[in-house]
Amino acid sequence: MKSYEVNFDGLVGPTHNYGGLSYGNVASQSNSQQSSNPKEAALQGLAKMKALMEMGFQQGVLAPQERPDVAALRRLGFAGSDAQVIERAAKDAMPLLVASCSASSMWVANAATVSPSADTADGRVHFTAANLNCKYHRSIEHPTTSRVLGAMFADQKHFAHHAALPAVAQFGDEGAANHTRFCRDYGQAGVEFFVFGRSAFDTRYPAPQKYPARQTLEASQAVARLHGLSGDGVVYAQQNPSVIDQGVFHNDVIAVGNGEVLFYHEDAFLETDKMLAELQAKLGKCGGNFQSICVPRSQVTVEDAVRSYLFNSQLLSRADGSMLLIVPEECRGNERVWQYLQSLTSSGGLIREVKVFDLKQSMQNGGGPACLRLRVALNQTELAAVNPGVIMTAPLYGTLTQWVDKHYRDRLSENDLADPQLLLECRTALDELTQILKLGAVYPFQIN
């Protein structure tokens, strides 16, 4: 039976703004308070989805969340009508209003961790929504994320959904941004690679000194248990604390993997040789041939990687066995990174082609091509069981671009977030979107 890696990209929400909310994310902080363009952001993301679909890759779409999150503001003590809640938050606690308006759910690499049926004990595809408890504006996402994923992957015969881990620092979980799967074929058993920044309970593991390590070893181990993964099919690795302190807030900012290949920076991990040997041994038991591409610091510095998002790329396996790397325009704008990529593709190695996409609106907020997608390995039967409304097609692309043109603003500043009309615009748009994507009632305003 044929199997696929399906990329479900996050659709940028109507409140896309530059709030500078993500401490440790250099791009997010450096572009704080600039005016954003939600319409352009959504159209840039849709253009990438369409391009990958036209290249022959299976492509889906994951809906954004309701923002501002008025219910979250009410839990923080703001009372009255929806308009009054927004007005009072803007007057008394503008940072909380900005957080409640964040469109960060667009980066669906943080939505969940996904294990395919070939790896799990019960033979189902398992999803665990990420608690994202390191940042308040992201910690409020997982209830809606769970409902949306449940509406997309509803057949309990094929799909299993787990609630987010306890929302405490010891179980900080950032989802697939710190998780990669290696396999010979998407339908065969593989090795799931969990990268953590610190241990909550074991002091033998060093921690960064400047920026927070968002993913804990204990969270990764809990997800592996929930998904019924075998110890022979799991590898844990620690991210280098010094690169976290340089702005590498997730593993997908310093490494990316797919199939049998890991593409990583020389400074990405601790005990790299031991980690590579374990990946090679365990993937070999699954019939695979693990291969790695190390980018030396002498050619690309960590700062270059963070500024260009070289590793926040999509590494895609094509039908002829070659590999394609999807990178943001910022890679072409960095001389050292672009020179490295040119030498990489001309060497006749594993990665044969690089394609560049303009994702400036997302990039300025700290998210590149890899942030915008959640990978789900599915066999033909499982793909047929996915809600067909979320699978990208040419007609759906046309419908969604028209929907964006109709509902999205082309400029949004911090002051605009205090406009109660923005909430009404968002709810109207999302109500229509759930009908387009055939999701049913997944948003609080539709349920309550």
Automatic annotation (TrEMBL):
Keywords: Arginine metabolism, Hydrolase. Substrate binds at residues 19-28, 110, 137-138, 214, 252, 365. Its EC number is 3.5.3.23. It catalyses: N(2)-succinyl-L-arginine + 2 H2O + 2 H(+) = N(2)-succinyl-L-ornithine + 2 NH4(+) + CO2. The keyword Kinase does not apply. InterPro entries: AstB_sf, SuccinylArg_d-Hdrlase_AstB. GO terms for molecular function: N-succinylarginine dihydrolase activity. It is an enzyme of class 3 (hydrolase). It comes from the Bacteria. Transmembrane segments: none annotated. GO terms for biological process: L-arginine catabolic process to L-glutamate; L-arginine catabolic process to succinate. The active site is at E174, H250, C371. Pathway: Amino-acid degradation; L-arginine degradation via AST pathway; L-glutamate and succinate from L-arginine: step 2/5. The keyword Hydrolase applies. Pfam families: AstB. Catalyzes the hydrolysis of N(2)-succinylarginine into N(2)-succinylornithine, ammonia and CO(2). Homodimer. Belongs to the succinylarginine dihydrolase family. This is N-succinylarginine dihydrolase. It comes from Pseudomonas chlororaphis.
